[in-house]
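does this look right to u?? pyridoxal-5'-phosphate version
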Amino acid sequence: MPIYLDYHATTPVDPRVFASMAPYFMEVFGNPASSSHRFGLQARAAVEQARQRIAAALNASTPREIVFTSGSTESNNLAIKGVVRRCGTRGRHVITAVSEHKCVLNACKSLREDGFDVTVLPVEADGSLPVEAVAAALRPDTVLVSLMHANNEIGVIHDIAAIGALCRAQGVLLHTDATQSFGKVPVDVQAMQVDLLSMSAHKMYGPKGIGALYVRTPCTLVPQLDGGGHEGGLRSGTLNVPGIVGLADAVVLACADLEVDRRTQRALRDRLWLALRDAYPGILLNGPDPLTAPERRLPNNLNVSVPGAAGDALLAALGDDICVSTSSACTSASGEASHVLTAIGRAEGHTNLRISVGRPTTDAEIDQVVACIGRAAVRA
Ligand SMILES: Cc1ncc(COP(=O)(O)O)c(C=O)c1O
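got this back:
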């Protein structure tokens, strides 16, 4: 069996999540919008229970603050375009950062084409973003700051609570993309003082094609889809009931298992880093140091650049049997250099590997990868 070490790209569905979704395909198959009969009412009850569980996990004030979407690409688009278009008369300035996911950057690009003003902040060499840089970029006409909680390539965790306090004090809305952080580090919308937060089930052992957007009351959005006005008018379209049930289950399990997962995955990741560091003296670490600053990096993330021929040899040795990413999955599909590594000056002349461990990763798998790294380094 190949060894999968690309859990940032996606995760397998947890069997417990799969089991809880199963009845909603063929037994409880009603449309939650069908309020005139029991099929619809049963489906509606499942959706509302899921909404309550997710709201509780995020520490939202009310389940009404959770809007179901098709995943984080949609949540991010709805949050950014929805808020900015709603606030258009109050101000037309948005702040984001160069290392955001493409769906955030492209949503901002689209706003810019519509005449809004977007500041794209640079990041430090380790991908971090000082709160002072956000403070310096705020203007009287700033309506939204959109910054990810944790980066999907280099794992750096932004201090969203500090940025949240700053934005709240200035009366500016804050959106955070928590796609990669949810289930790996604590996420609490009150403690972080965020107004909007995106999440996606397939990054936390739930199904693909379902996600949610937290929208703090009384924040309002312009919907991005015209339709029948589902989800409090914010997101039209028949609800994906099995997906919603699966998302809620994945969320609850992620919170329950967080501390154990964090400790286990960090230990596996650190073993890989030590093996790579010992094997390749010229190796460059992308993102904060996992050993000296573990609190600033996702516990399951490693991203390295191996220079020259050694990097090529390592990639060849990993072969088809050890599945890692040479950049983010979305960027791989477009065949471009990673914009995140470019932003920190690491894209050129190296073999860049993003290695992410997950709940199913075993010690035996890491043993095999460590052995493979050792053999490749001797050959190089
Ligand atoms: C940080 C981040 N934001 C957004 C997305 C998009 O999420 P989805 O696949 O649910 O649309 C991803 C997926 O790679 C991601 O890593």
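The chain has two domains: 3-9+258-379, 15-253. idk if thats expected tbh
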